[in-house]
Task: structure prediction
Amino acid sequence: MSIGLIGRKVGMTQVFQDDGTMIPVSVLVIQPNTVTRLRTADRDGYTAIQLGVEPSRKLSKPEAGQLKELPKVAVIREFRVDDLEAYAVGQTLDVSLFEPGDLIDVTGTSKGKGFAGTIKRHNFHRGPKTHGSDHHREPGSIGPGTTPGRVYRGSRMAGHMGDERITVKKMRVVRADLDRNLLLVQGPVPGAPNALVLVKKA
Result:
């Protein structure tokens, strides 16, 4: 378990290496994160660091009471860690945690696709289009008849597609821009532009 940071996905671009190789990268903007709370095993049953980012004008009374004299932040997330000695409430963490070549895990919420059929959602094959067939994109049989006489739980069917929490593991950091608080990661990151992402070392 390692510390991570809260950021947002900006979009994608490309970076050219010295030998001319082009690398597609996702651009993540990671503003400095503030340590808002330390979770200890004695009090909370586990050890974790609570981070906050992005200023907020309006907070509920419980949130305001928890932050007290700390900066008022809109987004708060926790990261499980093994040791709390290197961290303190009010401390600021930034992109300097990562260096080019590091492997990271990026967690985000995938784009929502609405209601989708089985072909789009689960890559089913379509039915025949000729010889009197009338089930071109239908799912077909969904279960046996007499035994067990029901549909098995978890059967793949049409339904809500996307808008799920997804973690892409072992993505390589291409560049860390401390001046602009940017992290360039090789490959695609889940989510739409401006989507919230959690980044931590793999």
Q: What stands out?
A: The chain is about 10% helix and 45% strand. The chain has two domains: 4-113+165-201, 114-162. The longest helix spans residues 61-67.
